[in-house]
Amino acid sequence: MAACGLDFGTSNTTLGIGSGGVPSLVPLEGAHRTLPSAIFFAPGRDAEIGRAAIEAYVEGTPGRLMRALKSVLGSALVEESTPVGRERIRFRDVIARYLTAVKARAEAETGLSLDAVVHGRPVHFVDDDPAADRKAEDTLRQIAESIGFRHVRFQFEPIAAALDYERTVTGEEIALIADIGGGTSDFSIVRLSPERHRREDRADDILANDGVRIGGTDFDRTLSLGAVMPLLGLGSPMKRGDLAVPNAYFHDLATWSSINRLYNAKTLREIDEVVRDAARPDLVTRLRRVVEAERGHSLAMAVEGAKIATSDSGQGQVDLGWVEPDLSAGVDRPRLAAHTEDLARRMAQRIGRCLDQAGLTADRIDALFLTGGSTGLPHVRAALTASVPGARVVDGDTFGSVGLGLTLEAARLA
Q1: How many angstroms separate the CA atoms of 304 and 297, rounded?
Q2: Rounded Cα–Cα distance for residues 192 and 394 (Å)
Q3: One of this protein's Pfam families, by short name (predicted)?
């Protein structure tokens, strides 16, 4: 039986296999070990995935781009269909097509026929809704089985990250694992040691597990609504002064999984009516240009890029010159923090819940292990470290720790 660890993330996907007890991530796109969780459907062509999907969209190839595919799990949207050319495809079948391509690439790269998988999953697909959470896992299991995995197991993503980190520890310690991904933030408190690492049953070492459906795409969405969408008319008045421009269009446009909902003739007609009745029709006309050109994902990627640039260098720019000459939105760290500080605060609150669940005080945590792209945001990192101020901060493989941990567990199935 050939087993793999599969981290199907909101933003990126990895797949790993173990050889001689050493886990490694399989290159899924050229030399890249990470594959953007994106798929592009173009008329008359096979679907593109990953970077190639994004490039096809950016280059203006006619078709439909979908990103943040994982975010529909646990919602009613997963059973709904979306128009792709002349057909309609259910979102769960879109996920299946994407994961089929991932599996095929890994098998071609390794020469193995993969029939077993340890799938990563967030602590909560859906906050405070156990039934929806179970349904999300069941859906992902069904998809995995439908694409050829005969043996499917799940592991919490922060636990997988803990297994990766545990390979480096030299003595016993209690670690808080923070996995801040594209769609969720997950936390686990785990007792680790070289001796415990050899055990198959680690249930007694997991002291707490919690999470919240907040991740990198939520930071993108909130930043977009705060810094960019007002330039397209969000919050501006209608001619009837006690009303504002309807905000639903802007919320869909700022949310990766909802962007494609706007691309239809009915929405364009509605926006035309808003333009007619708006006190600032020039602003809403910008919104119409984005929707008519089906460039919502271009806008979302520009916001994401500005967020990353701001995190790295202190400043970023959302270039909107393609909407209107010389139009742009500047972002700096104080502005990014102002728009998204509530998200960071809610993440840190989950750490408090984890400590309560484990029956521990913050000073009992020896190490804070950080993984996931959003741990690079300075105000997020500050909120997390302030929750356990005495802990040693360890930076994991930002996009690979979860996949490597899942692969370690998968090796036990082989």
Answers
A1: 10
A2: 14
A3: HSP70
DSSP letter, residue 238: B
Residue linked to tokens 């890029």:
305
Q: Which domain holds residue 128?
A: 2-171+396-411
Question: What residues pair up with 244 in beta bridges, in sequence order?
Answer: 237
Do 307 and 225 belong to one domain? Answer: yes
What region, left, alpha or beta, does residue 294 occupy, with left being phi > 0 and alpha being psi -120 to 50 degrees?
Answer: left
pLDDT tens column, 174-202:
999 999 999 899 999 999 999 998 887 88
Q: Six-digit token pair at 353?
A: 């819940």
Q: Are 249 and 296 in contact (CB under 8 A)?
A: no
Q: Is the pLDDT of residue 85 over 80?
A: no
Secondary structure (3-state) at 18 = strand
Other CB atoms within 10 Å distance of the CB of residue 111: 7
- Same domain as 89, residue 27: yes
131 belongs to a structural domain:
yes
- Spatial distance between the Cα atoms of 377 and 68, rounded to a whole number of angstroms: 20
Alpha-carbon gap, residue 414 to 402, rounded angstroms: 19
Give the burial string for 323-359 (b: 16+ CB within 10 Å, else e): beeeeebebebebbbebbeebbeebbebbeebbeebe
| The Cα angle at residue 301 between residues 252 and 180, in degrees rounded to 5 | 85
Residue 253 included in any domain: yes
**How distant, in Å, are the alpha carbons of 146, 218, 250, 385 from that of 234?**
43, 18, 7, 35
* Per-residue pLDDT tens over the stretch 104-161: 999 999 999 999 999 999 998 988 889 999 999 999 999 999 999 999 999 999 999 9
Residues 148 and 224 in one domain: no
- Does the residue 250 lie in any domain? yes
**Any idea how long the chain is?**
414
Helix (H) or strand (E) holding 153: strand 151-156
Number of domains in the chain: 2
pTM for the structure as a whole: 0.88
